[in-house]
Design goal:
alpha/beta; Rossmann fold; five-stranded parallel sheet; two-stranded parallel ribbon; about 55% helix; binds thymidine-5'-phosphate
C-alpha cells in the first residue's frame, strides 16, 4: 500500500485496543490542532458517514453474535471504503489534515491477529477498499488489558459485540498491533497509554513539535501553510 500524495494535509490514524483512551485523546488533539490553526477533519470507524454509521450499528450490536468472520470483515471494509471516498480523499485533496479514530490496521489487528484471518488476504482487501490510501502516521496507544478494562468501566454504556470478546482475543489484538508497529516503524509511533491521559496528550502534542518527526512538525512550524 502507499500513502496518498497530497498538498498540505497529513493523514493520521489513532489505534489501540478498546479502552486505550484513543477517542478521548483524538478529541483533545483535535482541540489542540484547532487552537494551533491546523485545519482538519476527524473521522471514526466503523462509521464517519451516513452509510458507515448504519454499518456501525450492525457491527457493534450484540444481537448479531452469530455474525460470520467473513461478514464482519466485509462490513468493516465497506464502512471504510465509503469513508475514504466521501470524507478522507476529499479532505486531503483540499489540504486538510485527517485525524482518524481507527483505519486499516484495526482490521489487521482485530480480524487478522484477533480472529485468525489471513493477513495477506486482508491486506489485499484493504488495498481495494481504500483505493490504496494509507495514513502518513499511525499513533498506536499501547496499554495493558487491565488498564483498558478499567477505562472501559468508566463508560456507563453496556459492552458492545466486540468488547464482549474473551480476554484472550483482546490480548491477541494488542500483540497484533505491536507486531504491525514492529513491521512498519516508519509509519507507526507507539505511545505509552499506561500513563494518565493528560500525559499521553502531552506526548502526542510534543510529537507535533518535534523536528525529528518532520511530516508532523513541519505543519506546526508553518512549512506547509
Ligand atoms: P471503537 O470502539 O473504537 O469505535 O471501534 C469499534 C469496535 O470495532 C472496536 O471494538 C474495534 C472494532 N473494529 C474491528 O474489529 N475492526 C475494524 O476494522 C475496526 C475499524 C474496528
Amino acid at each position: 500500500m502507499r500513502t496518498l500524495e497530497t498538498g498540505q494535509g497529513r493523514f493520521i490514524s489513532l489505534e489501540g485496543i478498546d479502552g486505550c483512551g484513543k477517542s478521548t485523546l483524538l478529541q483533545r488533539l483535535s482541540q489542540w490542532m484547532t487552537a494551533a490553526g491546523m485545519a482538519h477533519v476527524t473521522t471514526r470507524e466503523p462509521g464517519g458517514t451516513r452509510l458507515g454509521e448504519r454499518i456501525r450499528e450492525l457491527l457493534l450490536d450484540p444481537a448479531y453474535s452469530g455474525m460470520s468472520q467473513e461478514s464482519e470483515v466485509l462490513l468493516y471494509s465497506a464502512s471504510r471504503a465509503q469513508l475514504v471516498q466521501e470524507v478522507i480523499r476529499p479532505a486531503l485533496g483540499k489540504g486538510l489534515w485527517v485525524l482518524a479514530d481507527r483505519f486499516c490496521d484495526a482490521t489487521l489487528a482485530y480480524q487478522g491477529f484477533g480472529r485468525g484471518l489471513s493477513l495477506d488476504r486482508l491486506l489485499g482487501l484493504q488495498e481495494w477498499a481504500t483505493q490504496g490510501v494509507l495514513p502518513h502516521h499511525t499513533l498506536l496507544l499501547d496499554c495493558s488489558l487491565e488498564t483498558a478494562a478499567s477505562r472501559r468501566q468508566l463508560k456507563a454504556s453496556t459492552p458492545d459485540r466486540i468488547e464482549r470478546e474473551a480476554q484472550a482475543f483482546h490480548a491477541r489484538v494488542r500483540q497484533g498491533y505491536l507486531e504491525l508497529a514492529r513491521r512498519d516503524p516508519g509509519r507507526f509511533l507507539v505511545l505509552d497509554a499506561e500513563k494518565p491521559l493528560e500525559e499521553v496528550l502531552a506526548d502526542l502534542v510534543s510529537l507535533f513539535r518535534d523536528p525529528l518527526q518532520p511530516s508532523l512538525s513541519k505543519a506546526w512550524h508553518g512549512e506547509f501553510g
